[in-house]
Each structure stands twice: as C-alpha cells, then as structure tokens.
Fold:
Amino acid sequence: MIRKQDDLLGTLIHDVAHALRLDIDQRVKPFKLTRVKWLALGIIDDHPGITQAELANKLELGSAAVGRLVDRLVERDFVERSPDPDDRRAYQLEVKPNTKHLFAELDGISEEMRKSVLDGLSRHELDALNAGLSKVRDNLRKLTTTGTAAMIVIADNLAAASPQMAII
Structure:
C-alpha cells in the first residue's frame, strides 16, 4: 500500500498542482471565470474553428461536460458556436472579438501569478525543474498503453491556454 508520506514525489506534484488550481480559480473569480473556462477560452483562441469534440480532447473532459462549458461561454457572449461545414453533427468554436479585452486582463494575471509562484527560483532551478518534470511526464506516457499519462501535468494545459504560463 502506498501512503501519502511514502510517495514524496507524487505527493509533492499533486500538492503543487492542487495549489495551482486553487490559486488560478481564486485569481479569475472576479471575472466570473474558472480555471477550466479560462483554459477553454485560451484553447479556442489559439485554434479558431476548433470543434467541441477537439476541445473536449484537449481539456481531457467528456463531451457532455464540454457541451455545458461551451453553453456557458456562449451565454456570456465570449464564444460563437457555428455548424461545422464538413460535419453536420459537429460545431466549430471561435472567440468573439469583444472577448479580446478580457485576454489582456487575464494576461496580467498570468504574469502576476508566474512572478509570485516562481519567486525565489533561479533561472537554473527553473530550467532543471522543467527538464525534470518533462522527463517524468514522458516516462509516464511511455508506461501507459493508451498514450495518455496516468497523471495530468497542469503545465501542458496552462501552456495551451497561455504560452506565458508554460514555465509553471
């Protein structure tokens, strides 16, 4: 049996990821967003015309959950959903132009968060941390038969939403 105190690396990674999720949710709360909504907006902005199914895959969520998420983004007038001309069962998503002002404010949050979260780490330490975690992630991907890592590395998702967050 693995106990929390026995699995120091796994526990540390879990604790850091959990703390990051809570911090992000707290920082975007004034915008009436969640981390997942922010992430979804970033992915849609980076991939105009992405389908809901593709978004679900990138978010590692089920299609029903992403459907509800997209419904909320459409209701907030952040995203436009239109039929896919190549697949009548699918919808394509695009960030509406009026949402671009929000991205400027959210980019400020990214920068502020990066500074506070990485405070005290040298460039060498950051490079070593990124290299080490990348190797752990790659090793885990090799171990799985489906090609999907057994653990979610938040840096991948944050990088997809905001390239400036890739360092975290």
Q: What stands out?
A: Confidence is low (pLDDT under 50) at residues 147-155, 157-168. The first strand starts at residue 50 and ends at 51. Helices lie at 8-28, 35-46, 52-59, 63-75, 100-117, 123-143, 154-161. The beta strands are 50-51, 79-84, 87-95.
